[in-house]
Structure formats: C-alpha cells, structure tokens
Design goal:
CATH superfamily of the largest domain: Glycoside hydrolase/deacetylase
Structural class: alpha/beta
Number of domains: 2
CATH class of the largest domain: Alpha Beta
Shape: globular
Oligomer: single chain
Distance between the termini: 15 Å
Largest sheet: 5 strands, parallel
Mean pLDDT: 93
Number of helices: 15
Helix content: 40-55%
CATH architecture of the largest domain: Alpha-Beta Barrel
Strand content: 5-15%
Low-confidence stretches: 2-9
C-alpha cells in the first residue's frame, strides 16, 4: 500500500469521510449506525502505520505543486455533519498528531437547529419508523400539503426496515423539495426530540466553543452547506445557492476568524455534486470541494476530491482492504 512501481512517478492521496463515531456502550441512541469509538481508534492506528497522514494545508500545497516528497501514499481525514462526537474524535487525533478537517452545516450554529439528515436519523433511532411517519403526516397536514401526494406507507410485517428508511431519506433528499423538506423536518424535530430532550442540539451537534477548541488543536473546518442539501439535485435560485453554499463560508470566517477554503458536498454521490466547471460558474469562493467518489486524488480535479466513507461494519481489516482496492483501481 505504501509504494508504487519505479515506472510510476506520481503519488496521490486518499481521503476518508467519517460521520457518526458512537460510544462502545450505554449509547442512549443505540440504533444509530456508526463507527464505535474503540474501532475508530484502531482504524486510526492502522492508518497512521500504513499512510503518511496529511492535513488540508498539505493538500492545498499538493494541488499547486502536483507532487509529494516521497513515494508513500498520503491520507487526509475528514468528518462531515458537525456532529458532537467529532469533538472527542478531534482530541483522539491530536494524540496521534493528526490534523483533520471538519465540515460544518452552519444551521447548527446560526439558527441553532439540526441539519436535515440528523433529524431523520435521531427520530427513527429513538422512536421508530411508525412514530416518524406519524409526525410526518401531521406536519403535512399542518403545512396544508396533500397527504396522499407525499405519504410514505410502512407495514412492519411486510416492509424491510432498511429499505423503508432508505425510501424516507430518498424522498426528503430528492422528491419533496428543498424548502418543504426543511419545514417538515423542523416540525418533526420540534414535536418529538426537542420536547423530550431540550438539549438535543448539544447531543447531536458541535457547538461554537468545541469548534474553537478543535481549531486550537490544529484542525481545520470547512462548509457542508447551511442545512445539508443535495446541491446538484436541488433546484436552487441564485439567492438559495448563496444562502446554502456562499453564506456559510462567510459566516464561519467571521465567527472563527479563520480562512475557509474547502467545501464538502452533502451526500456526495455523482447525482449530488456539481462538475468543477459548473461549480466554478456559480462560485469561486472555494479552492477545494469534496465528494464521496472512491478514488485516489492526483490533484487535477481539486473541486471533485474523492473520499471513502468508513461504514459501521468496517473494521481495521476491511478498511485496509478497501483502501488497497481503491489504490489498485486508480493507479495511473
């Protein structure tokens, strides 16, 4: 994994995109899927051994120079969604002398409201699909929307739970519409989680003080839109695009007094991100943009940097094998 053939001169970098890093035991939201904290530590040990760990600043230098100093593959760690557990992850990484980048949906700071997918994840994890859909229908009614047009049915005995959760996520990402989705999810949030857990935002997401500390540790932050939307699949007016993509950069720069040069596409698949040219036609605010395409990055597409997403079922061995396979597939 560490070297190329003599004929191969260019060395690229890989990047990981972590999301939930959950407690090993006593998790009050135990149905949330994520990497357990002990497994996370083991994965970091493996990565530190197999790769040269780099920072966002190193990537920016590489983009300009198109060359690294040695023939060992590089690894950049990133974390999406601004989750509360990323604070502990940042402290663990500091112990390993690793500097990561954390992508923040700015709604969690400016409006102190959770990002869209986290509402779905936490409500279903705590109350189940039936309760989520009950609140969903109530929200449709309160907002004056036709229930038959948007309804999602679920019969426990007949439907596969994971397929139904995937359908719910798909509808909110791609079918309901940008503003309707947000209204419905906030209604569900305010009538379920927020009632039982008045401090639920602190449970789900990072706060400003934690982010300040993470920056002091040497980590970097970037933008993950404002409310966590699919940029390419969402019909955005110019003002909507500004509010979701451009404004968050200015907000984070003003709030934390740091330059913001990187953007991470929520969901990050091909249907969710813009080509480099389309992105540049809309904004020139960012030097780097991240997807979840599983590739080795050689610096030629800085606005389409690929990442591998460790899954909850990944362990050290499967993660190492998956990264090795990505290198084999992408070697020049």
């Amino acid at each position: 994994m560490s070297t190329q053939s003599k004929e191969q001169q260019q060395i690229g970098f890989l990047s990981l995109c972590y999301h939930y890093i959950r407690p090993d035991n006593d998790d009050p939201f135990s149905r949330l899927m994520g990497t357990k904290i002990t497994e996370f530590k083991n994965q970091i040990k493996m990565l530190k051994e197999k790769f040269e760990m780099i920072s966002l600043d190193d990537v920016l230098e590489f983009i300009n120079a198109k060359i690294f100093e040695n023939n060992k593959y590089k690894m950049l760690l990133t974390f999406d969604d601004g989750l509360s557990e990323h604070y502990n992850a940042a402290k663990i990484l500091k112990q390993f002398d690793i500097k990561a980048t954390f992508f923040i949906p700015t709604c969690i700071l400016k409006e102190r409201l959770p990002a869209n997918p986290m509402i779905i994840h936490y409500v279903i994890a705590k109350y189940g699909i039936e309760k989520f859909l009950e609140e969903f229908r109530y929200a449709l009614k309160k907002l004056g929307l036709e229930i038959k047009k948007y309804d999602i049915t679920y019969v426990r005995e007949d439907n596969d739970v994971w397929k139904k959760i995937a359908e719910i996520k798909y509808n909110f990402k791609y079918k309901l519409g940008y503003k309707i989705s947000r209204e419905i999810l906030l209604h569900i949030y305010q009538n379920s989680l927020l009632i039982e857990y008045p401090n639920i935002l602190e449970i789900i997401h990072l706060n400003k003080e934690q982010i300040h500390e993470m920056l002091e540790m040497g980590h970097r932050i970037g933008v993950h839109t404002h409310t966590h939307i699919s940029v390419a699949a969402t019909s955005l007016s110019d003002s909507d695009f500004f509010n979701e993509i451009v404004f968050p950069k200015k907000y984070l720069e003003d709030e934390f007094n740091v330059p913001i040069k990187s953007f991470s596409y929520p969901f990050g698949e091909r249907k969710d991100y813009l080509s480099s040219m389309r992105f540049l036609n809309k904004t020139k605010e960012y030097d780097l943009a991240f997807t979840v395409e599983e590739i080795v990055n050689f610096g030629n597409t800085p606005l389409e940097i690929g990442r591998y997403q460790p899954m909850s079922h990944d362990n050290v061995r499967t993660l190492e094998n998956n990264l090795s396979n990505i290198i084999k597939k992408n070697i020049l």
